[in-house]
Design a protein that fits this description.
The complex is a heterodimer. By secondary structure, chain A is an alpha+beta fold. Chain A has 11 helices and 4 strands. In chain A, helix 8 packs antiparallel against helix 10. The complex binds adenosine-5'-triphosphate (ATP) and magnesium ion.
């Protein structure tokens, strides 16, 4: 009861200054939210979670992208040479490739070495003794330099290497990374869709909160209309309330995200050390944080605007 | 001040509450509106305050046909009218002072001018000492006087009262009526809907009597001839 009274007190306080000072108005809305801590906090937390989820998703995809570019260094291209190619030609190609300065390493595996390795790892070495001829081709193993070849350039690079007349075929051990990128794209789409749904959710929650606030004060609004209040005058405190809800939810969402990314960063940091990787978890930048809070505030304002538009009209003095 | 020209009001649902009412209340005049329950008294007052719109006919306030007013003009129209209700319509969680200050705040009166004017209005109705109390802590007659103070604080040229003495004993009723007469003496036009025929007879002001939405007595002129 005491809470409800306090709430209404500041409601009228807001009316007092409304025509002169927006500032006064906005602090009063803030006060009234703070005076009803449980109700308001609950709403704000729900809003904050709804805002934080897209943010977390955004960070996840961002990091996943960063990870995939980190892992490029493990890419290797195997060039299988033509049967007819000689040792001499193969050595020349190796030399050419090294000269291009795009690669970390270029190494030639001769037919004999290939056979040796095959015998060693295949487990059917004995039966190979029956072969009169070595069926394995020469192979050039090429490891692109991560710093000089972007992931997207990998496939064209392989294709250009295959054009060399002594190259028969090639294999890029990158199928998985293509798939990974496809999955990233799909999850980005799903992420935007979910973000859209959550934004609509925020609008609905704010709208409903404001609707209840308006209905709670039905009689006051009637009286105030009777003594000559304009719609703008009555609308303003509700708009501020929505704005504050969104703003506070945005700040809390940003806090949630930064706590989460710090927690994760400390464990990935150790993991990265273990693997001697340069990988570092990306959180939200300052401008991204402001964007999140701004989106929260705008959604809050818009949600209350929709609600106020709809429900203030319905309340007329009788 | 107010002119009704052949005003009809049919409510949704088909009930015809007013059927061709015409009268003119001149500037500074005070009149009573009477009639049986359901005769259309409240309806008539609501048309003046634009809480309802006439189905037919013209309601003219200060020479302006208010039936044609746009919705966004209604608040400014209402600021010219002080309204008093039988059920007071106060904000019960606000002090007497805040209730009376409300029309000034809404009209955008400068902060520093508000206390002076609120106290002048409260003084007029004899409630200066109760400004910090809540309406609930006052008697019915005192609450009605808070309503009157709120209606006059903005110095509107017209007062409308719907059964202002409905729940009050005869002595208090006479007190409230004499308050209205005091405002009338300084030039405010007053229209009071009331059942209290005895009191109305004693006060010697013009009377309009409604029966089933039609005028059966009209002490006022019917038309302003120009
Ligand atoms: N909003 C409404 N919708 C439909 N009918 C209404 C509405 N308001 C009033 N009426 C009808 O219009 C008629 C006149 O009502 P009104 O309130 O004007 O009477 P009144 O003279 O003020 O009566 P009372 O003395 O009981 O207050 C009544 O029959 C009432 O039922
Ligand atoms: Mg009535």
């Amino acid at each position: 009861m005491a809470g409800a009274t306090a709430h209404k007190v500041s409601f009228l306080d807001r009316f007092k200054m409304a025509l002169f000072l927006h500032k006064k108005n906005s602090t009063d809305s803030l006060l009234s939210i703070l005076k009803q801590p449980t109700n308001s906090l609950l709403t704000i937390m729900v809003l904050a979670i709804a805002l934080a989820l897209p943010g977390i998703f955004y960070i996840m995809t961002n990091n996943a992208k960063a990870l995939s570019s980190n892992w490029e260094s493990t890419m290797a291209i195997s060039l299988y040479l033509e049967e007819s190619a000689g040792q001499q030609q193969a050595q020349e190609l190796v030399g050419q490739l090294l000269a291009q300065d795009k690669f970390q390493s270029v190494s030639l595996t001769s037919k004999e070495q290939a056979l040796e390795e095959f015998k060693k790892y295949s487990g059917i070495g004995d039966s190979l003794e029956m072969l009169t001829e070595n069926p394995l081709p020469m192979v050039i193993n090429v490891v692109p330099d991560e710093a000089k070849v972007a992931l997207s350039e990998l496939q064209p690079l392989v294709e250009s290497l295959e054009k060399n007349p002594i190259v028969d075929s090639s294999s890029l051990d990158a199928e998985w990374i293509n798939r990974y990128q496809e999955i990233l794209k799909i999850s980005e789409k799903i992420g935007s869709f979910i973000s859209l749904l959550l934004a609509i959710g925020v609008l609905l929650i704010v709208g409903n909160t404001i609707r209840l606030a308006i209905l709670n004060r039905r009689e006051e609004i009637q009286v105030i209309k009777l003594v000559g209040a304009t719609d703008a005058f009555i609308r303003r405190p509700f708009l501020y309330t929505g704005l504050w809800y969104g703003l506070m939810a945005g700040v809390i969402a940003a806090l949630m995200i930064s706590i989460l990314s710090n927690l994760v960063a400390s464990s990935t940091g150790r993991l990265a050390e273990l693997y001697q990787s340069q990988y570092q978890l990306l959180g939200l930048s300052l401008s991204q944080t402001f964007t999140l809070v701004g989106i929260g505030a705008l959604l809050g304002l818009f949600g209350s605007w929709i609600s106020v538009r709809k429900h203030l009209k319905e309340i007329q003095p009788t | 001040m107010i002119e009704f020209h052949q005003v009809f009001k049919r409510y949704e649902g088909g009930h015809e509450a007013l059927k061709g009412v015409s009268f003119a209340l001149k500037n500074g005049e005070m009149a009573f509106l009477t009639g049986h329950s359901g005769a259309g008294k409240s309806t008539l007052l609501k048309l003046i305050a634009l809480m309802e719109r006439p189905t037919r006919g013209q309601v003219i306030l200060d020479g302006q046909n208010i039936s044609q007013a746009k919705d966004r003009q209604i608040p400014f129209h209402r600021r010219k009218i002080g309204m008093i209700f039988q059920d007071h319509r106060l904000l019960y969680d606000r002090s007497v002072y805040d209730n009376v200050a409300l029309p000034l705040v809404i009209a955008g009166v400068a902060d520093r001018d508000i206390p002076k004017r609120v106290r002048a209005a409260l003084d007029k109705v004899g409630l200066l000492t109760k400004e910090k109390q809540l309406p609930i802590q006052l008697s019915g007659g005192e609450q009605q006087r808070v309503g009157i103070a709120r209606a006059v604080v903005n110095k509107p040229p017209l007062l409308l009262a719907d059964e202002p003495t409905g729940n009050l004993d005869p002595e208090l009723s006479a007190e409230i009526m004499s308050l209205f007469e005091q405002f009338n003496q300084v030039g405010v036009s007053v229209l009071i809907a009331s059942h209290d025929l005895g009191l109305i007879a004693r006060l010697k002001h013009p009377v309009i009597t409604l029966k089933d939405g039609q005028t059966i007595r009209n002490d006022l002129i019917e038309e302003v001839h120009s």
